[in-house]
Specification:
Blueprint: H1 14-36, H2 42-66, H3 78-95, H4 102-124, E1 129-133, E2 148-152, E3 165-168, H5 176-187, E4 192-194, H6 195-203, H7 213-218, H8 223-243, H9 245-258, E5 264-270, E6 276-282, H10 297-300, H11 312-320, H12 328-332, E7 337-339, H13 346-355, E8 368-370, H14 372-377, H15 383-398, H16 402-418
Parallel strand pairs: 1-2, 1-3, 3-4, 7-8
Antiparallel strand pairs: 5-6
Helix pairs in contact: 1-2, 1-4, 2-3, 2-4, 3-4
């Protein structure tokens, strides 16, 4: 992943963010407490300060990994990230039967959140990127990207002062003078990126039209993380299923009372390695499924904007994504994951395979209840929109890691609240 740092904003520098956080939330408060506490309490305070410093460093490390992804607003993840790092720190103290200063932990937690939100605001005030590009090769840099201004560098003598990065098509043989100039840019601390990698990082998409043999190799997810994730999925699905069982039964009852028909909707979809499986959801449409377009069965299989087949309670379930909860069963059966590309209906999937190159490659990971395409794009049905969704799916596969999964979880929570992308 790429992390562009604007030379015009010192607030983006990790030494400023982390150093300021350690001073404000750990070192200065600890020094002040040393002046007022009895000497016999200094050992506990020193021990607590080390724990707070470790929690702050872990929190910043995690935050930096999350916010390298496009669209990630650092301020949105400050509280959950530092809550997690401080919780782990407290568990070490509690399970290790170590004494700690409660006020030092509480004040450190509060101060690091205030500091991190402040630095995030300062970064956002100078978010716009100025990127130079060479007039050779891949035209991808000519596309419009929010928050980016492209500057053509058509002369080796062009001054790049003030640019955040330089993009170049590194797959082609550049003239010798440009090779030397790119090296000079790097020496001037101006990052030089391959244009395709840079555009992927800025948009959160992998362009299907340019996939090559090498791209397929780079898109193979880490098998070690796949197995760890599969085990964690099963354990969390079991725990969540037990905790949410009363809610699941209540929703099922409401669905039955709202309209005639079963509480659960079952449909054959294409899953991991291209194998069909039966997905479970709460029914959100009338059982009779009144046709909306009898002349086009594929269009009738898609959910349209303002679809008349959706029931009253179905609208609520779709907006909050609660209709997806029965897929806990699919996770327990090993057919799905919490996070991954959304599985498509078999009819649509077979159609997309014919219409869209490389479509089947999305089945290299388990489909998910939530996915990168959904949090970035929302629900789609048209072929062109599906092609765009695949760009996001491939980006997820290429960057398959705990960090992008954590980002999707955080953005999914926001979507549940706002109803973004539902139909």
């Amino acid at each position: 992943m790429l992390l562009l740092s604007s030379s015009r904003s010192p607030w983006r520098r990790i030494d400023v963010q982390l150093g300021g956080g350690l001073l404000l939330a750990a070192i200065i408060p600890s020094a002040l407490r040393m002046l007022i506490l009895e000497p016999d309490a200094h050992a506990v305070l020193y021990q607590t300060t080390l724990g707070v410093i470790a929690a702050i460093i872990a929190g910043f490390w995690l935050l930096r990994n999350i916010t390298t992804y496009p669209g990630a607003q650092g301020g949105s993840y400050v509280i959950p990230v530092f809550t997690a790092s401080y919780f782990i720190m407290l568990m070490v103290f509690v399970l290790g039967r170590l004494d700690y200063n409660r006020s030092a932990v509480a004040s450190g937690y509060l101060l690091i959140i205030i500091w991190s939100v402040f630095t995030s605001i300062m970064v956002q005030r100078n978010q716009h990127l100025r990127i130079g590009y060479l007039p050779f090769g891949d035209p991808a840099i000519r596309q419009s990207i929010d928050g980016v201004t492209w500057h053509l560098i058509d002369d080796t003598k062009t001054d790049v002062t003030g640019l955040d990065a330089v993009a170049a098509d590194l797959r082609i043989d550049l003239p010798n003078e440009w090779d030397r100039r790119l090296a000079d840019y790097a020496l001037q601390r101006v990052p030089v990126f391959h244009v395709k990698t840079l555009v992927e990082s800025l948009t959160g998409r992998v362009e299907l039209e340019h996939l090559s043999e090498n791209s397929f190799g780079s898109l193979i997810p880490l098998s070690a993380y796949m197995w760890v994730k599969h085990i964690l999925d099963w354990i969390t699905a079991l725990l969540v299923g037990i905790v949410l069982l009363p809610l699941l039964l209540l929703i099922g009852l409401l669905v039955r009372l709202d309209t005639p028909g079963p509480a659960l909707f079952q449909q054959t979809r294409i899953g991991f390695s291209g194998h069909p499986f039966t997905v479970f959801k709460f029914r959100t449409m009338f059982s009779e499924r009144p046709p909306i377009d009898t002349a086009d069965p594929l269009r009738a299989a898609m959910t349209q904007e303002g679809d008349v087949r959706i029931t009253r309670i179905g609208k609520i379930l779709r907006r909050t994504r609660l209709d997806e909860l029965p897929q806990i069963l699919n996770i327990l059966r090993g057919e799905m994951s919490w996070i991954g590309p959304r599985p498509e209906a078999e009819t649509l999937s077979r159609w997309y395979e014919v219409e869209i190159p490389f479509y089947r490659y999305r089945h290299i990971v388990r489909p998910g209840v939530a996915g990168w395409a959904q949090v970035c794009q929302g629900h789609v049905s048209e072929v062109d929109d599906v092609r765009s969704k695949l760009h996001y799916d491939f980006y997820y596969i290429k960057n398959f890691s705990p960090w992008i999964d954590l980002l999707i979880v955080a953005r999914t929570v926001r979507i549940v609240i706002t109803g973004f992308g539902s139909k």
